[in-house]
Amino acid sequence: MVFNADILIHAGLGNSDQQHWQSIWEKQFNFTRIEQQDWETSVCSDWIKTINDYVNRYDPENVILVGHSLACAAIASWAKQYNIAIKGVLLVAPSDTEADSYPTGTSGFTPMPLGKLPFKSITVFSNNDFYVSRERASLFADSWGSEIVNIGDAGHINVSAGYGEWNEGLELLKKLDAGY
């Protein structure tokens, strides 16, 4: 599989370990991981600045961001603040930072950003994600103007839910790369 866009991977809280689909994709396709300074007590404004720094290393119109979990809120917040037209974004398992189930220790990620994104987006979620209800994930995707993909009972779409290699996700990324 060949990608034409510059793919930037952004993990969620705690970063993604080597068995996570994001890490597998990063190695397999030589994607770039956005490295945050603090993965445990994350500050939204710091994450937004770092995202912007990485995007501006490339031609933004050729960048696709791939966010998982908390990175989805950070990317939506980045889009609201900077309004840069990138090629697209794949938002997977967005965490609901306003939910009781959301871990403590982060700051600035509430309220959830609900503005329409200024670029193409696909939001993928599951029916039984501990960090977001199906209804809230659908609200986020609708608000962002995303194509919505519900993949059923898939937990948080991470390693513990059985998502190391994730070929269906690659197909969605390829769709964004083709400009769907």
Number of helices: 5
The portion of residues forming beta strands comes to 15-25%
Helix proportion range: 25-40%
The CATH superfamily label reads Alpha/Beta hydrolase fold, catalytic domain
The side-by-side strand order for the widest beta sheet comes to: 2-1-3-4-5-6
Total number of domains: 1
Shape: globular
- Sketch the topology as an H/E string, one letter per element: EHEHEHEEHEH
Whole-Å distance between the termini? 17 Å
Number of strands: 6
Q: What Rg is obtained from the alpha carbons, in whole angstroms?
A: 14 Å
CATH top level label: Alpha Beta
Low-confidence stretches: none
- Helix/strand structural class: alpha/beta
Q: Largest sheet, described in full?
A: 6 strands, parallel
What is the CATH fold-level name? Rossmann fold
Name given to the CATH architecture = 3-Layer(aba) Sandwich
Overall mean confidence score, pLDDT: 96
Secondary-structure topology with pairs:
Blueprint: E1 6-10, H1 21-29, E2 32-33, H2 44-55, E3 63-68, H3 70-82, E4 88-92, E5 120-125, H4 134-144, E6 147-150, H5 167-177
Parallel strand pairs: 1-2, 1-3, 3-4, 4-5, 5-6
Helix pairs in contact: 2-3
Q: Could you give a short description of this structure?
A:
It is globular and about 40 Å long. Strand 5, helix 4 and strand 6 (147-150) form a beta-alpha-beta unit. The chain has 180 residues and is an alpha/beta fold.
Overview of the molecule:
This is Alpha/beta hydrolase. InterPro entries: AB_hydrolase_fold, RBBP9/YdeN. Pfam families: Ser_hydrolase. GO terms for molecular function: hydrolase activity. It is a single chain. The protein is of the alpha/beta class and 180 residues long. It has one domain: Alpha/Beta hydrolase fold, catalytic domain (Rossmann fold, 3-Layer(aba) Sandwich). It is built from five helices and six strands; from the N terminus they run E-H-E-H-E-H-E-E-H-E-H. The chain has a six-stranded parallel β-sheet, with helices on both faces. Helix 2 crosses helix 3. The radius of gyration is 14 Å and the shape is globular. The protein starts with 5 loop residues before the first strand and ends with a helix. 46% of the residues are buried.
